[in-house]
Amino acid sequence: MVVWDYLFILYFILVILTVIKIIFDTQDQVKALFYIFITVVFPVFGILIYFSFGINYRKNKMFSKKIFADTKLQAEVAEKIRESIAIKGDEDDKTLIKYYNLIRFQANADMAPLTQNSVTLLNNGEAFFPELLASIETARHHIHVEFYIWEDDKIGNRLKALLIKKANEGVTVRVIYDDFGASGIKHRIRRELHEGGVEIYPFYKIRLIMLANRLNYRDHRKIVVIDGKTGFTGGINVSDKYINGPEEKKGKIKYWRDTGIKIVGPAVNSLQRNFIANWNFCSGTRIPIEESLFPIALSAGKYGDDYMQIIASGPDSDFPYILYSCTSAIYNAKRSVYITTPYFIPHENIMAAIIKAALSGIDCRIILPGISDSAFVNAATKSFVAELLKAGVRVYFYQKGFVHSKTMTVDEDLSIIGTANMDNRSFELNFEINSVIYSPALTRQLIDVFDSDLLDSTEVQWDEWSNRFIGRKFLNKIARLFSPLL
Q1: 403-413 pLDDT, tens per residue?
Q2: In CATH, what is the architecture of 321-485?
Q3: Which are the catalytic amino acids?
Q4: Rounded to two decimals, what is the model's pTM?
């Protein structure tokens, strides 16, 4: 036998072992078949793709140091949060009774207690950033900032300058950025923040030797906590493109539609806990758990009428809590489910829940991008439209610009606003955080915004969609095959 024969035998054994590993480790059948296919059909390349993108790192505890640290943090913070919550919920509140199982599940998942808060809806960057900057200006003790994207542009530099100013005033300022998403600040802005007294770390530093899987696990959360009393979250990143105004934007997308929220109340404790857990992991230091980090006590006054829970998940959580949260919310629907998402490559559980709701006569509507920042992802998204239409789901393509908002309303009393898209990446791979708000008043506001967005959208009609050119249908299906990588 020549050398090539031995190499072929070794490679054949490697393929067999890889296939066995895929079968044992990959619970999703579609993903398993996809990775088996590319492993067998594409020599070497397919195996590299699987080990870069396909391994179940939640099961293998890739973030074991973080998990261990979070467990210790849980014990310390739990008592602080319990002390700050005097109200568990009005037992006679019909909304809370209706969503009892969802509330109970989320209370057990990642420590998400039910609390009363004041929640302000902030549509687009032009509403979000003035409120954010004004709140940061009031900080007296600490400012915690965590963003996926932070660009070296006007708003990026305004935020930088304000954080340095507050640090010089004696306020403790800590910043976490995603090493991939916020690559634009890794040089000048990061250096200036550090030199200005701001503590700043990348969440998961990209190293060449582990480039693929480090790119695969992203800190997609957007969290700002000010003095432990005020919080911001939602889908908006630090970038001029999220601000719509008279100035002409570069590129094909001239208008960005997104949603953020400002929270005042005990739910900020949950944002704080998630930030501290991430900080302890990425910085290698440990923030001491002090009263000043969790100052809110409901006994000192009522902050608002919006009951809410903060739910987080990622490779460091034992289960995909956000996936289960969204699925449970849809199954609770009695009248309507309205979803807005920029990326719709849903887990089969979400797809089943939406279709079942529509077949039950519930008014299900989904707004998707008509103009997208990713042609390939948008092509995969379109492969699901026919199934939705056939079940009676009304699908709309947003035309005014790019819709980046990640929201859902159920009936007229539940809103979900967060960082997670309706795709497998958000449910399985990224570090995400959602706000689940049990508030008829806020939900009515969000439905009004949804109705306004419908005016800037075109509804997809079954006859027109089913008669599309077969080549387009084929390309959509091909893109869908690669959904495990998207």
Answers
A1: 999 999 999 99
A2: 2-Layer Sandwich (3.30)
A3: 220, 222, 227, 404, 406, 411
A4: 0.85
